[in-house]
Design brief:
Blueprint: H1 8-19, H2 23-28, H3 30-54, E1 57-62, E2 82-88, E3 96-101, E4 106-112, H4 117-129, H5 132-138, H6 141-147, H7 169-172, E5 177-183, H8 185-189, H9 193-203, H10 205-215
Antiparallel strand pairs: 1-2, 2-3, 3-4, 4-5
Helix pairs in contact: 3-9, 5-10
InterPro entries: CHP02453, UCP028451
Pfam families: DUF2461
Length: 226
């Protein structure tokens, strides 16, 4: 069964959950939650099926509704959204896709949230040597018209060992390399939502391609893969 969009009833349930974020209310409405969760899982499965037409997905993960409150000041026990991620296949395909469904705050995100120390250093060394190809990719109209500008946290000054006057220091300082596209509730409810998500994910492929190329080669362009 292909689900093209998220139902208004699902968004309404998430709004109710946000306004009644306690165990008693949730337990009383758990059958309703399970119904909406099942429908959203099917939608995410459809997203994965579409992704596999133009990419290779290793796994899809739906995140649990229960919050880990151990180290949080916010002790509300449940998330008021559904979310899932899609990991690309194998060491040669880097990056990942993410989709969150929340009334008024639905978004898709792609890229590299927390590159490990080695990957981050490799990316920075690439930009130090030559960032022109990367800038060309992220500056293409076909990508920017959907995703806008690259986002993510960075360090305040030049990382250790890098020149703070380098012409590409704005890229070198980055710790994250992500793009985000927001969706209105109207877009989420529209029958074209599934296709819009897929179109967005397909448009980011050149970014994934160049990042995968960087992360699977040394500075001489030689493959690091067996």
């Amino acid at each position: 069964m292909e689900i093209q969009s998220i139902s208004k009833e699902t968004l309404d349930f998430l709004k109710e959950l946000e306004n009644n974020n306690n165990r008693d209310w949730f337990e009383a409405h758990k059958p309703t939650f399970k119904m909406h969760e099942s429908a959203v899982k099917q939608f995410y499965a459809n997203v994965q099926e579409n992704l596999n037409v133009h990419d290779e997905i290793e796994k899809m993960k739906m995140f649990r509704i229960y919050r880990d409150v151990r180290f949080s000041k916010d002790k509300t026990p449940y998330k008021s959204h559904f979310a899932g991620s899609f990991s690309r296949l194998g060491a040669h395909l880097r990056g990942g896709y993410y989709l969150r469904i929340k009334p008024g705050e639905t978004f898709a995100a792609v890229g590299f949230w927390e590159p490990n120390k080695e990957d981050l250093f490799r990316i920075r060394k690439e930009f130090e040597m030559d960032a022109s190809d990367f800038r060309s990719v992220i500056g293409k109209k076909s990508l920017k018209s959907i995703w806008g500008e690259i986002q993510g946290d960075g360090v305040k000054t030049a990382p250790k060992g890098f020149d703070k006057e380098h012409p590409d220091i704005d890229l070198i300082k980055r710790k994250q390399f992500i793009f985000v596209r927001n969706f209105s509730d109207k877009e989420v409810l529209d029958e074209s939502f599934l296709e819009e998500v897929n179109k967005s994910f397909k448009a980011i492929r050149p970014f994934f391609d160049i990042m995968s190329d960087i992360l699977t080669t040394n500075l001489n362009g030689e493959s690091l893969l067996d």
